[in-house]
Amino acid sequence: MKIFGEHDEATLKQITVCGTDHDGSGTVAGATLCADGHKGYSMPIGGVVAYRNAVSPSGVGYDIACGNKAVRLDVPAAEVRKNIAALMDDIWKTLSFGVGRRNDETVEHPLFESESWKIWREAFRDLKQKARVQLGTIGSGNHYVDLFVDEADQVWIGVHFGSRGFGHGVATLALQKAGATDGMDAPPTVISLDTDLGKDYWELMGLAGQYAYAGRDWVCSRVATILGAEIVEEVHNHHNFAWKEMHGEEELVVVRKGATPAFPGQKGFVGGSMGDMSVILEGVDSAESAEALYSTVHGAGRVMSRTQAAGRMNYKNRGRSGGQISREDMLGWIGPMGVELRGAGTDESPQAYKRLPDVLAFHANTVKILHTLTPIGVAMAGEDEYDPYKD
Question: Are the CB atoms for 205 and 109 separated by under 8 Å?
């Protein structure tokens, strides 16, 4: 088991439970915890567990294939800065933020013709239609659409969200069928890929992954159109998923919850908070990379839960001390940075998060930074939005 960074006892206990082969079957092959880790549902965010011919739907989680996409544009940064307020207004009006929202624009995609929709069809009922109208919506919580500039003053769009209600439905039904125990501290639910349930879940997880990618592709393209720009580079990666990978001489199923694949040469977009840098990074080959199952962080990681953050704390404390956060505190952080904000609750304030450079320092031997992105516009679901989906 490889641990990066510093973590509280509850988080360490979760990854220890997930990474332990309790029944002696040899199903668990290894585990790691990334430096942005914190307690999650059954498995910690930032957790990575490798299985032999099995998958854990509780490890993948409810927001299947939640991920990050960043695209670089050909528009001059000076032009975007000059019009940032109007551009963020257009983004906020055009896109759908929040739980259970519909996209006002119809998004057609070949994935809706997949035979995989027939699996568990009777139990899903109207889930396919729900997925159709939600494709391209962003959701709430820590999901966002941001505008950035990099160290060369190039403009980037960055987005973070997943498979919406469809992924949540797949996870819910899979866990029910597996007889899983509900709860944050429930032991991991592990299903053999030789079983019908394991095969069905694997196929539907893949479909949810296609759905999440399609949504992020559409949002990035739509925002580029709002900016009147062309996309010249794309970096797209996801977490909350399971992959079949070769590690050494063995094929393993690697489950990453809130952790990003980072094989040598593989690029990733990792977001900080609304008031901090984000990065484009690339995996490197090292002994430590192999120990980490070629995985890295997916974000900065929380230091305060959403419940703790929904109150008041002086922004100068930068989330290092106890207390709660008010909207005044949040704006006191991002105001001097010049970030044009739309929506967002105090539970997503920068004070509730670790600093991304601190987190990345623990992974210095496994990744290299290609670009540093500074936010100039941030759009998230509003303060009154509640996200019931477990992370």
Answer: no
